[in-house]
Design goal:
By secondary structure, this protein is an alpha/beta fold. The strands form two sheets. It has a six-stranded mixed beta sheet with strand order 2-1-3-10-4-11. Strands 7-6-8-5-9 form a five-stranded mixed beta sheet, with helices on both faces. The longest helix is centred in the last third of the chain and has 22 residues. The radius of gyration is 20 Å and the shape is globular.
């Protein structure tokens, strides 16, 4: 469906959903990661705007754990009445199915896509003090040190099976070194661990790392997209050294399978309008996050493509759930 039709119908579509929600409980938005990380912050930003457009209360509920699986499973098992929605992401809906022997949810069949929210490159960043002490200022320096000092470096991720974990294992395998993986419950805690010096580096998304890069607290050594990011034009892609290396991060909104199509359409209209609003774009730009509003069908297509693609990616990386 043309996006103009969504926008044109937003006022008419939002009112029935708002009236329905005001008669009962508010809409619960489950974020399967801890508060303070990029996924949490971006979801709060656009949900605040969507709630204004819908004229109803929308409550963020953080449910971290299991590489995001605990929260997304809550969405899968919620009543499909429009009062519970949540986040889908590359970790839970594309990577975890190939990392875990068994999941309590089907990453595709158990959900009704609403819209994609964000697309962000992952970036290899290192604690700035550690980098200066070890005389590391480039990707080449990093690889040389890591090879010469097995297990001396450690890296944090947002959890076992997260995009940062998978990128870290792929990078170790490609570059031929060993570093210790330490999982945390979300991108925010993993960044704090690196800033405190508990770990040495991460391969998390740019939205999580952006503020610390600007503040000079961490140094960016490489991005994980096939080409350099326009947000960090002077930072090389790992693919320049290891062709074919590619992992980026995306997340979006989902409802339980069976949620009525008209409810999904109204939620899509509100969230697309929020993503396209100037103030949200400005706030996302400050986080180095690219808003990506889509139709439900487009987001569903992305989820299916990524789910299929990551089967070979996970196997090639050798990553496992600890």
């Amino acid at each position: 469906m043309d996006r103009r039709h969504f926008m044109a119908g937003l006022g008419a579509a939002a009112l029935p959903l708002a009236a329905r929600a005001q008669q009962g409980k508010p809409i619960r938005v489950i974020v399967p990661f801890t508060a303070g990380g990029a996924t949490d912050v971006t979801t709060r930003i656009i949900t605040e705007k969507a709630a204004q457009l819908l004229g109803t209360a929308m409550l963020i509920e953080n449910r971290p754990g299991g590489g995001g699986g605990i929260g997304v499973d809550m969405v899968a098992k919620a009543a499909p009445d429009g009062h519970t929605i949540g986040m889908a992401a590359v970790a839970m809906n594309a990577i975890n199915p190939w990392l875990f022997k068994k999941l309590p949810y089907d990453p595709i069949k158990d959900f009704a896509p609403i819209t994609q929210m964000v697309r962000i490159p992952n970036v290899l960043v290192m604690n700035a003090d550690t980098a200066r002490r070890l005389k590391i200022s480039t990707l080449k320096d990093f690889i040389a040190y890591a090879r010469a000092n097995p297990a001396r470096l450690s890296y944090a991720s947002g959890g076992n099976g997260s995009g940062g974990h998978l990128a870290g294992e792929m990078f170790k395998k490609k570059a031929g070194f060993y570093a210790v993986h330490i999982p945390y419950n979300g991108g925010g805690p993993s960044q704090l661990a690196m800033l405190s010096g508990t770990v040495d580096y991460t391969l998390d998304n740019l939205a999580t790392s952006g503020a610390n890069i600007r503040a000079g607290k961490v140094i960016p050594l490489a991005v994980t997209t096939p080409r350099r990011s326009p947000l960090l034009p002077d930072v090389p892609a790992i693919a320049e050294t290891y062709p074919g290396f590619e992992i980026d991060t995306w997340w979006g909104l989902i409802a339980p399978a069976g949620t009525p199509r008209d409810v999904v359409a109204r939620l899509n209209a509100a969230y697309v309008a929020a993503l396209e609003s100037p103030d949200v774009k400005t706030r996302f730009a400050g986080m180095m996050a690219e808003p990506v509003p889509t139709t439900p069908e487009q987001f569903g297509d992305l989820m299916r493509r990524e789910h299929a693609r990551y089967e070979s990616v996970v196997k090639a990386s050798g990553a496992t759930v600890d």
